[in-house]
């Protein structure tokens, strides 16, 4: 994934499926943690009461970005798992 663009290359046996699956799972965990951190901020009344509107909007934008990244990562993880099942 480059920015908002997804590029797919048929790599077949050129990649180690297990390593790629582990890498994607690790990335999903990192994105989940970051998204959870931001979501906690956005439901915190103290944060919402004290922060400037532009800061709140920036955090909402980050949350949206991480939600989209999570969707893409999970799709990639599903594809890797399908490849792995196809090889077995």
Structural features, described:
Helix 1 packs antiparallel against helix 3 (53-87). The chain has helices at 17-43, 45-50, 53-87. The chain is elongated. With 88 residues, it is mainly alpha-helical. It has a single domain (18-87), classed as Helix Hairpins. The protein has 3 helices and no strands.
Question: Could you give a short description of this structure?
Answer:
The protein has 88 residues and is mainly α. The protein has helices spanning 17-43, 45-50, 53-87.
Give the integer mean of the pLDDT values. 88
Bulk shape:
elongated
Q: How many β-strand stretches?
A: 0
Output the number of helix runs. Answer: 3
Spatial extent as radius of gyration? 17 Å
Amount of helix: over 70%
Portion of residues in beta strands equals under 5%
Structural class: mainly alpha
Note poorly predicted spans: none
Q: Encode the helix/strand succession as letters.
A: HHH
CATH fold description: Helix Hairpins
The total number of structural domains is 1
Q: Write the CATH architecture name.
A: Orthogonal Bundle
Q: What does the main sheet amount to?
A: none
CATH class: Mainly Alpha
N- to C-terminal distance = 27 Å
């Amino acid at each position: 994934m480059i920015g908002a663009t997804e590029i797919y290359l048929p790599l077949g046996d050129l990649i180690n499926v297990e390593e790629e699956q582990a890498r994607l799972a690790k990335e999903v965990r990192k994105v989940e943690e970051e998204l959870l951190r931001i979501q906690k901020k956005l439901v915190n009344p103290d944060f919402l009461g004290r922060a400037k509107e532009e800061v709140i909007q920036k955090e909402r934008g980050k949350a949206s970005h991480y939600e989209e990244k999570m969707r893409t990562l999970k799709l990639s993880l599903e594809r890797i798992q399908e490849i792995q099942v196809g090889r077995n």
